[in-house]
Amino acid sequence: MKIILKYILTNIQERKVRTAVMLLSILLSAMLLFVSFSIGVSYESAQRKMARGMAGSATVSVQNVTGGIYAGDIPTLPVIQTKAGILEGTSLYHENGYYETVDLLAADIDALNQINKPRLRNGGEITNFVGYQIILPDRFTSKYGIEKGDTITLQIGGSPIDFEVLEIAAYDTVFLRHTRGATALLPLETLKEILGQDNGYSEILIEAAGHTTTNDLISELRNALDTEKYRVSEIVNEMQIAADARQKSMPFFLISFFSLTMSIFIIYSSYKVITLDRLPVIGTFRSIGATKKAVTRILLLESLFYGCIGGLIGIPVGIFVLKAILQGMGKTLSQGIEIPVIISLPGAFLSFTVAVTVSLLSAWLPVPQGKPSADKRCCFRHSGGTSYPAPADGWNWNHSICHISIFAAPCIGKYALSCRRLFSAGTYCGDNPCNTDFYQYFKRSF
C-alpha cells in the first residue's frame, strides 16, 4: 500500500500543471454547487424575515371589507393564541428638499408585545407612550441626524404635525419594511384622533395556538366569520417565498451544471492521456500478478484524491464567495435587509459527494479502455529484455498501403499487358516517342 501511495503522490508531483487543472475544475464545481444550495436557503430566510416584519409570530390577518374591524369581532376559538389590532396611516417627511414616505402604525402595546415586540436600541421597554410622541427606526434617524428627544414634523392629510421622538428602535419587527421609506410607531389614541377613525382597527393579526397550522386556523376563522364581510388571509405566503428563492438560485445551478460538464471533460481527457503515459507501469503491475480490478483501483485511487481535495477546498472557498454574493444582493434590496449567511449542511455534503463522484466516474470511463491494449503493448515492447515495435491500435497506414498494393497489382499487370499488345500492333498512340518510352518501361517490368 505504501508503494502504491508513493506512486500516486509521485505522479501528482511530476504532473503539476495537469494536477492543478483537474483540482481547479473539481474545486469550481464543488464551490458553485455549494453556493447554489446555500444562496437559496439564505435568501429564503431573508424573505421570510421581511414577510413577517410587522406580523411577527402572527400568521393570519383578518380585515373588514367595508371598514374598520374591532377585536371583539373575532370569536374566541381554541385555535387562537393571541390577537392584536393594528391601525395604519400614512404621512410625508420633508428634509432639505427631499421627501420620504413614513407609514404610521399604532396598536395596543401589550398585545403588540405578545406577537411582535419592538426592540429599542437601548434595550429598554416602551413606557409612558402617550400624546404626540413617536418611535422611529435607527436607520431613519441616522439618515437625517435625528436623536432621542428631538421634534420632527410630519405631513398628515396635508397638515403639518409635530412629534417628540420618545425612543429610537432597531430596524426590525414592526419597523421592517417591504418597500422604501420608514415606519413610525404612534400611541393608538393619538393616531385615532389624527385620522379621525373611531370604528376599530385596520386589521387584526392572529397567532395560532399550539401546533395549529396556518391552514387549519384560516379554515376555522372562515367557518366562524361571515366571509362576505371579513377577509381572512395568510400573512406569509410560504410558496411564494420558496419560489423567489428558487428563482435566485437557478442561475447558480445552471452555472454549476456547465462547470460539472467541464470537469467531466477535463478529467476524462486527462485520464485518457494518463492511461497512455503509464502503459509500461500498468504492464509491470500485470506482470507481477495484479488483476485488472487491482490496476483499475490504483488509477481510480488517484482520481479519488483529486475529488476529495477539490471538494474539501471548494466548500470553504464557497463560503467566502457566498458572503460576497449575499452582501451584493443585500445592497440591491429596496428594503435594505442584510441577507444572513446560512450554510446548508445537506448542500455541503451533497457538493462534496458530487465532486468525488464526478471525479471517479470521469476517470473510470477511460481506464478500462486502456488496460487491454496496455497488456499487449508492454508484452511486445519488453519481452525478454528486447524492445519490439508495439502493434498499433486503430488505423495503420503501412498495413493499408500494403493491402491496397496486393489487390491493385493484378489490375495494373493486366492493364500493362494490354498496352504491350497494342504497342506491338502499332495501334496505340502512333509513333510518339513518349509512348515508346512508356512501352519500353512496362516491357522491362513485365
What order do the helices and strands come in, and which of them pair?
Blueprint: H1 2-14, H2 16-52, E1 60-64, E2 80-95, E3 98-107, H3 109-116, E4 133-137, H4 138-144, E5 151-156, E6 159-169, E7 182-186, H5 188-195, E8 203-208, H6 214-224, E9 230-234, H7 238-277, H8 279-287, H9 292-332, H10 345-364, H11 366-381, H12 397-425, H13 433-445
Parallel strand pairs: 3-7, 4-6
Antiparallel strand pairs: 1-8, 1-9, 2-3, 2-5, 2-8, 5-6
Helix pairs in contact: 1-9, 2-7, 2-9, 2-10, 7-10, 7-11, 8-11, 9-10, 12-13
Summarize the structure.
With 446 residues, this protein is α+β, with helices and mostly antiparallel strands. It is built from 13 helices and 9 strands. 57% of the residues lie in helices and 15% in strands.
Q: Would you mind describing this structure in some detail?
A:
With 446 residues, this protein is an alpha+beta fold. The chain has 3 domains: 2-48 and 240-385, no CATH class; 60-224, no CATH class; 401-445, no CATH class. Helices cover 57% and strands 15% of the residues. The protein has helices spanning 2-14, 16-52, 109-116, 138-144, 188-195, 214-224, 238-277, 279-287, 292-332, 345-364, 366-381, 397-425, 433-445, and strands at 60-64, 80-95, 98-107, 133-137, 151-156, 159-169, 182-186, 203-208, 230-234. Strands 1, 2, 3, 4, 5, 6, 7, 8 and 9 form a 9-stranded mixed beta sheet that branches. Helix 2 packs antiparallel against helix 7 (238-277), helix 7 packs parallel to helix 10 (345-364) and helix 9 (292-332) runs antiparallel to helix 10 (345-364). The model is unreliable at 370-410 and 412-446 (pLDDT under 50).
